[in-house]
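ingest -> fold -> write
write: protein_1
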Amino acid sequence: MKMRLSVFSLLFVLLILFLLYKLFLTPGGRAGLPPESPLKTIDKAKALSADSSFDIIVRGINSFKQEKGELPATLEELVPFYLRILPADPWGRPFRYNPQEGGSYTLASAGADGRFDTSDDLVKKE
């Protein structure tokens, strides 16, 4: 009888460990949910990279505005005095720049699909 109880206890512990593994240590560690597709993960990383490019361009625009008292008409005006090169978005395409009256502007990346004005666009308004 004692031997049966020990085998049952061991099996029970192994079952609990297996369930914990499946819940917490599976790829993605998201409590048993299927792991994210690699393409989705890459797109998230590219979106973070776009934020860095936005910051670089914003610094150039702000320096231009501080020195000249107005926004540049195009991003190309920033090169080479305010930016060494004009960064492309993480997908290798140019950012769209739209200056507005009153000193505000919008920077945008077309995102993964390469088309502006779609749901995956990355936009920064200043």
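write: protein_2
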Amino acid sequence: MPNIKSAKKRVLITKKETVLNNDVRASMKTAIKKVEKAQTKEDATTLAANAMKRIDNAASKGVIKANTRDRYKTRINKIVNSK
């Protein structure tokens, strides 16, 4: 356990940020899985738009890096185009 006041504060802030980051990451991955499970191309297209928004949001918050964002978006486009 930290003894210094600022270190104690950082522990609390890190816990809070970890929870928020996990929520953003989980919603992003759920949106991607919904695109993968879509039956028709129309459904996949509408779900892909939501997934792209979630991915961009995660990248803007720093949860994922820019190259990871681009890789996820490319995979989604390939899934939609293959249906």
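write: annotation protein_2
The helical segments are 5-37, 41-60, 66-82.
Residues 55 and 72 are 8 Å apart (CA to CA).
pipeline exit 0
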